[in-house]
From TrEMBL:
GO terms for molecular function: ATP binding; dihydrofolate synthase activity; metal ion binding; tetrahydrofolylpolyglutamate synthase activity. This is Mur ligase C-terminal domain-containing protein. Belongs to the folylpolyglutamate synthase family. PANTHER family: DIHYDROFOLATE SYNTHETASE-RELATED (PTHR11136:SF0), FOLYLPOLYGLUTAMATE SYNTHASE-RELATED (PTHR11136). It comes from the Eukaryota. One of its GO terms (cellular component) is cytosol. Gene3D superfamilies: Mur ligase, C-terminal domain (3.90.190.20), Mur-like, catalytic domain (3.40.1190.10). It comes from Pichia membranifaciens. Keywords: ATP-binding, Ligase, Magnesium, Metal-binding, Nucleotide-binding.
Length: 300
């Protein structure tokens, strides 16, 4: 990256053993950790403490570390222990004290994410970073696939050009993300119920993904994302019948459930149902699924 003076690399999985953690302390200005949830347990550990240990592996001697104060106490305890072990200052931020600008992104949890980002920006101490530039940046931020309101033109599926369906795209794929999605949907419900188009990556723990978002009046359409994810041949979707069996095993109440292995068929089914019921359509369960939805539109 020619002429680049600073970069903000995002950890892939965990942190302690992630490739991004090769950056030495003298080349690192600040590190930050947002909300830690149960995810990638097969790689990071089965408990929040074990996962937090991997996450806080990015702490470096003398480099300021910032963490979201809304984390579970077990996570914060690990962060405090790690900061003492490596010798770095730790800042535990709280939205009421540290979030001085309103996030544009949807979802209450964005206040917590922004609190971490704002504290990190203040610790960099770069004259180019001012309250004005931060405010402009926050107000212009777009995050595809995270509570993204998206109008899908049905002509890409063979419908007439004036036919479209409004989707809420969210890549929620773990317990914490599902809980946050559920919180946001609760603000929209009132008398409105939802049609969920769901696909999930094999290996994900399904025990707590459905309950935070689905009610007895919702319709579920299980589908699958493309199984040829570039550069990651091990990434595969759950079979739709396995997902249907899982939600029945959990005893979660719903209005109706459909299985459509092909994403195009799932969107068409959601469109037909929404035309009759006026239910809002939510696409969730995997960022790979969200990417496939956007790709369908772009390819057309």
């Amino acid at each position: 990256m020619p002429n680049t003076t600073s970069v903000a690399p995002k950890v892939g999985v965990g942190g302690r053993l992630d490739a991004t953690n090769v950056l030495p302390p003298d080349r690192t200005l600040v590190v930050g950790i947002t909300k830690v949830g149960l995810d990638h347990q097969n790689l990071l550990g089965k408990t929040l403490s074990e996962i937090a240990f991997q996450k806080t592996g990015i702490f470096k001697e003398g480099v300021p570390a910032v963490i979201d104060g809304s984390n579970d106490e077990a996570v914060l305890d690990v962060a405090e222990a790690e900061s003492k072990e490596v010798g770095c200052p730790l800042y535990i931020v709280k939205r009421d004290e540290d979030c001085w600008v309103t996030p544009k992104l949807l979802g209450d949890y964005q206040y917590d994410n922004l609190s971490v980002a704002l504290k990190m920006a203040s610790l960099i101490r770069d004259s180019r970073i001012t309250k004005d530039t931060i405010k402009k940046g926050v107000e212009s931020t777009v995050w595809a696939g995270r509570l993204q309101e998206y109008r899908f033109n049905m002509c890409s599926l063979g419908y007439e050009k004036d036919k479209s369906i409004d989707l809420l795209l969210d890549g929620a794929h773990n317990t914490q993300a599902s809980i946050e999605l559920g919180k946001y949907l609760s603000t929209l419900r009132n008398d409105n119920d939802f049609i969920f188009i769901i696909a999930i990556t094999q290996g994900k723990h399904l025990s707590a993904l459905f309950k935070p978002i689905i009610t007895s009046k919702d319709t579920i359409i299980f589908t699958q994302f493309s199984d040829n994810v570039d550069g990651m041949p091990w990434i595969k979707p759950f079979d739709v019948l396995d997902l249907k069996k899982e939600i029945e095993t959990q005893g979660i109440e719903y209005d109706d459930v459909y299985t459509c292995p092909q994403l195009k068929d799932a969107i068409s089914q959601a469109y037909k149902i929404s035309q009759v019921t006026k239910k809002k359509v939510v696409v969730c369960g995997s960022l790979y699924l969200v990417a496939d939805v956007l790709r369908l539109q772009l390819d057309s």
